[in-house]
């Protein structure tokens, strides 16, 4: 089941330029979504607490991110960027916008 969940996460993560795995009541997920919205980025979100396979995906994400809870887990261009602290660190270093452009999430 772990391999199927890992594959499900990878498949979902590659469907859009920016994909956020989170839960509906996660304040840090909201912060990441707000940042991307303010940057003009379109994103897809998969709320694990509303997905029938969410628990398995949460475990798979925990293995990928290396922490529990693993949300929000942000993928850009199909590649794991990490949780909120990693996304914010990239942004503060001026590396988030170029990464988003490279993934096709920003055009300007």
TrEMBL record:
<keyword id="KW-0676">Redox-active center</keyword>
<protein>
    <recommendedName>
        <fullName>Glutaredoxin domain-containing protein</fullName>
    </recommendedName>
</protein>
<dbReference type="Pfam" id="PF00462">
    <property type="entry name" value="Glutaredoxin"/>
</dbReference>
<keyword id="KW-0963">Cytoplasm</keyword>
<dbReference type="InterPro" id="IPR011905">
    <property type="entry name" value="GlrX-like_pln_2"/>
</dbReference>
<comment type="similarity">
    <text>Belongs to the glutaredoxin family. CC-type subfamily.</text>
</comment>
<dbReference type="InterPro" id="IPR036249">
    <property type="entry name" value="Thioredoxin-like_sf"/>
</dbReference>
<dbReference type="InterPro" id="IPR002109">
    <property type="entry name" value="Glutaredoxin"/>
</dbReference>
<feature type="domain" description="Glutaredoxin">
    <location>
        <begin position="18"/>
        <end position="81"/>
    </location>
</feature>
<dbReference type="GO" id="GO:0005737">
    <property type="term" value="C:cytoplasm"/>
</dbReference>
